[in-house]
Specification:
The structure is a single chain. This protein is α/β, with parallel strands linked by helices and 240 residues long. It has helices at residues 35-49, 69-86, 95-100, 144-151, 168-175, 191-199, 219-227; strands at residues 2-7, 13-19, 22-29, 59-63, 89-93, 109-117, 120-129, 132-143, 158-162, 179-181. The two termini are 28 Å apart. Helix 1 packs across helix 2 (69-86). Helices cover 30% and strands 29% of the residues. The strands form 2 sheets. The chain has a 5-stranded mixed sheet, with helices on both faces. A 5-stranded mixed sheet has the order 8-7-6-9-10.
Length: 240
């Protein structure tokens, strides 16, 4: 199976072309957030360097959030457009899970973090079990204090990765020696690992229905909700 994998959830842009579990080509950029400018040219370049044509692709795997509103919207839009245009499969994967894939170690809990500002984070808890990564606590947008209440009862070491700088001291004060901070390279998502993981997952049944997983209200939704506290906001903002 020939797979295109895309993760633009935050500052890094990572794109890979895979054939089954074999990496054909990959590009990762961390120096800017010009995803709208670079994403499609990078995809075109990697497909060409893999000696493939777009019509050779069979599946697109996309990190669908949480993360930067613009970043995940770019990846999801690109993935949907390519899947619909080529008539191929689309798989969506949590952006936090994709980051957790960098910590391939059993016996620890993996805590990927995206900074949500003001001591809030996008986060979840994962672990490896017999070579398969699984969710322990579902992805969510949560304050650091509340997150520590959820994870403090676990007795395994907890590895944090991603945007850890703002949270390390607070987590260390509760977890003490059980806290492990992953190195900086583990904070960079890998589209190759995303593609490998997504190869075995079931594709979505309705490409048109796929939307980014923001895990919190957009500013437009939050502002509208303040002005209309008694109205349903479910369909107010179309997020893609």
């Amino acid at each position: 199976m020939k797979i295109l994998a895309i993760d633009t959830s935050n500052r890094p842009l990572s794109v890979a072309v895979m054939e089954d579990d074999r990496l054909l080509a990959e590009t990762t950029l961390t120096t800017h957030r010009k995803h709208a400018e670079f994403l499609m040219p990078v995809i075109e370049d990697l497909v060409q360097k893999s000696d493939l044509k777009p019509t050779d692709l069979q599946r697109v795997v996309v990190a669908d959030g949480p993360g930067s509103y613009t970043g995940i919207r770019m990846a999801v839009t690109a993935g949907k457009t390519i899947a619909k245009t080529l008539g191929i499969e689309l798989v969506t994967v949590s952006s936090l899970l994709n980051l957790a894939l960098n910590i391939e170690k059993e016996g620890v809990l993996i805590n990927p973090i995206f900074d949500g500002r003001n001591q809030n984070m996008f986060t979840g808890l994962y672990r490896w079990n017999d070579g398969v990564i699984e969710s322990v606590i579902e992805d969510q947008h949560i304050n650091l204090t509340d997150w520590l209440k959820l994870i403090s009862s676990y007795d395994q070491p907890i590895v944090i990765s991603g945007d850890t700088d703002s949270f390390e001291d607070g987590m260390r004060s509760v977890l003490h020696s059980r806290l492990i901070v992953a190195d900086s390279l583990a904070a960079i998502p890998s589209a190759a690992k995303l593609g490998r993981y997504g190869r075995s997952k079931s594709p979505v049944t309705n490409v048109d229905a796929v939307v980014p997983r923001y895990l919190r209200l957009t500013k437009a939704e939050a502002d509208w909700k303040k002005l209309h506290p008694n109205e349903d906001t479910h369909d107010y903002v179309e997020k893609i």
